[in-house]
């Protein structure tokens, strides 16, 4: 499985929607190619909108780590703001510590 790390949380909800749309498109493309892919943003965004689940990384950290351990590769979707993302930083460190290959995808 491919785990897709991408930025999400932002004080401007328009930026969050933009980020969600981009990672949804990327994830959809992989799945349509027959590649198993998981994006915590694609999965978690509806929970945030409809169930008022927190959008912060701390809330999702344990869940995301389990998904990372089930993954063969991590792809970092390099959207604007990815380098400042606390969640992506943690995902990169976690993947590195657990021998999960990393790939950076320019968007």
Write the layout of secondary structure elements.
Layout: E1 2-5, H1 13-32, E2 37-38, H2 40-51, H3 57-69, E3 73-78, H4 86-97, E4 102-106
Parallel strand pairs: 1-2, 1-3, 3-4
Describe the structure in brief.
The protein has helices spanning 13-32, 40-51, 57-69, 86-97, and strands at residues 2-5, 37-38, 73-78, 102-106. With 107 residues, the chain is α/β, with parallel strands linked by helices.
Give a structural overview.
The chain is an alpha/beta fold and 107 residues long. The chain has a single domain, classed as Hypothetical protein PA1492 (Rossmann fold, 3-Layer(aba) Sandwich), CATH 3.40.50. Helix content is 53%, strand content 16%. It has four helices and four strands, in the order βαβααβαβ. A four-stranded parallel beta sheet has the order 2-1-3-4, sandwiched between helices. β1, α1 and β2 form a beta-alpha-beta unit. α3 runs parallel beside α4. The longest helix is centred in the N-terminal third of the chain and has 20 residues. The radius of gyration is 13 Å and the shape is globular. The mean pLDDT is 91.
